Structure formats: C-alpha cells, structure tokens
Amino acid sequence: MKVWVARRRHGGALIEDAVPLWGTPEPRELLVLDVTDQGLRKPGKVARLYPVGVRRITAELTAPKLVWFKDWQFVLSGVEYLVGETGRKGVAQSWMCRLAVPLGVNRLKAVYMFHAGVPLERRMLADRFARGTAGRLVINGAFEREFGRYMTRAGIEKRRGGQ
Predict the structure, then answer these.
(1) Are 93 and 79 a contacting pair, CB within 8 Å?
(2) What is the CA radius of gyration of the chain?
(3) Is 5 exposed, middle or buried (CB count within 10 Å of its CB: 0-12, 13-18, 19+)?
(4) Which domain of life is it from (predicted)?
(5) Any alpha helices (H) in 5-157, and if so which ranges?
(6) pLDDT digits over 2-16, tens only?
(7) Dist. CA 123–CA 130, nearest whole Å
(8) pLDDT range class, residue 78, cuts 50, 70, 90
(9) CB 132 within 8 A of CB 112
(10) Rounded distance between C-alpha atoms, residue 85 and residue 70, angstroms
(11) How far apart, in whole angstroms, are the C-alpha atoms of residue 134 and residue 157?
(12) ∠ Cα 109 155 35 (to 5°)
C-alpha cells in the first residue's frame, strides 16, 4: 500500500511534532512481511518502506503493531534499530501513516477468508459470488470474555441510509 509516514519518536523519546521520513511529496510503499531474524534465527514481522518501484529500504520497523486506525490514517508502533558508536541498539518508534488512496475512493471492500477460524479454500475466494461486505474500516479494542483480555478487533462498518 502507498502511504505518507511521519516519525513520532527520536532515539526512543517522544517528540511533539511528527517528522516526515523523507523530504519529497511522493508516498512510499509500505510492506509488512514475515521474516527470519538472522541474528536470533526466529520468525518475526517487519514493516518496511520503499520508494515506489524501487526495492531499496527507506526505513524499517521490527515487530510492528497496529495501534490506531481511523478513516485513512493509522499508527504503527514497534522497534527501530539504530547503529552507532556503541553498536546496534533497539529503540521504540511510532509511525503516523496516511494512506494514499485514489480520488473518489471512500470505502473498502472485504471478502471473508475464514469461516469459524478455518481458512476457506482458494477456489472459494475466487468465486465471483463470494460473500463480502463494503464500508468503512474500523479498528478498536474490545474485551473478549472467551479469552479474558482486551484484544484489537477490526471490522467493516456498513453504510446506513443515504450516507
């Protein structure tokens, strides 16, 4: 997805105003990937920013978590590694992101990929009659009694009336 990103922390400390990660007005490509940490040899996730059309990493966030999402803006938090005189050091980092959506787009369409926790077969996803829904993406925290804790939940809020 194409996004504009601004940093919210410097060296792990929160800064008052978000700082853009680059000086050009063009958005960057954001990819969240499953990778294997070469130092620890364990699986993990990273969020990487690339210039559009180029595979040169502009910035990287390890163990990204989606903290907040509203309209076309969201916040990712994770660990950014800095290399300095003392070696490689991990510090807290937050990215404020704004999606670069095409003009005229005001809602998302989602297709169900799981049923009762079981992944649907690929042929079922390609079916033109696959059940889906369209609307505004909403992400929030909710208490789940089954798990006994708060969890991040996502859903599609359907349009009501003539809105």
Answers:
(1) yes
(2) 19
(3) buried
(4) Bacteria
(5) 122-126
(6) 888 888 887 777 777
(7) 10
(8) very high
(9) yes
(10) 39
(11) 8
(12) 85
Report d(CA 83, CA 81) in Å as an integer: 7
Angle (nearest 5°) at CA 79 between 78 and 82:
150
At 85, list the tokens: 């005189």
Residue among 156, 152, 151 nearest 138 (CA): 156
Only one residue has tokens 């050091």, namely: 89
Q: Which tokens in the block code for residue 84?
A: 């300095």
Asked if 32 and 57 touch (Cβ cutoff 8 Å), the reply is no
Token duo for residue 33: 């990937």
Length of the chain: 163
Task: Tell me how far apart the alpha carbons of residues 148 and 106 are, in angstroms, rounded to a whole number.
Answer: 35
The answer to whether the beta carbons of residues 142 and 148 sit under 8 Å apart is: no
What pLDDT digit, counting tens, does each position of 83-126 carry?
A: 888 888 888 899 889 888 877 777 777 777 777 778 888 777 77
| Cβ atoms 49, 76 nearer than 8 A | no
Amino acid occupying residue 92: A
Q: How far is C-alpha 24 from the chain's CA centre?
A: 22
Residue 59 CA to residue 36 CA, distance in Å, equals 18
Q: Where are the beta strands (DSSP E) in the chain?
A: 2-10, 13-20, 28-37, 42-51, 59-70, 73-84, 87-99, 108-111, 114-115, 118-119, 132-144, 149-157
